[in-house]
Amino acid sequence: MKKHFEILIRRSTLISGKYRVTKYLFFSLSGYTDWFADLKDSNVVLLTLEDLYR
User: pTM for the complete prediction?
Assistant: First the structure.
């Protein structure tokens, strides 16, 4: 998942025009690795299936 995260961050810089990336939303059915648990970025939102049904 770290690889996917880094690709998303790099590609978000390619978005131009009137749009500005302010949050990165990740969805997971099986949870996240420890690397994501240690990530301290307020622009990253980690969602699970349980979160979607609250």
Answer: 0.66
Closest to 6 in 3D by CA, of 44, 53, 49, 51 = 44
SS (H, E, C) the chain: CHHHHHHHHHHHCCCCCCCCCCCEEEEECCCCCHHHHCCCCCCEEEEEHHHHCC
Q: What digits encode the pLDDT tens for the residues 27-54?
A: 888 888 888 778 888 888 889 888 888 8
For residue 2, report the phi and psi dihedrals to the nearest 5 degrees: -60, -40
Name the residue type at position 10: R
Examine the pLDDT at 18 and tell me if it is beyond 80: no
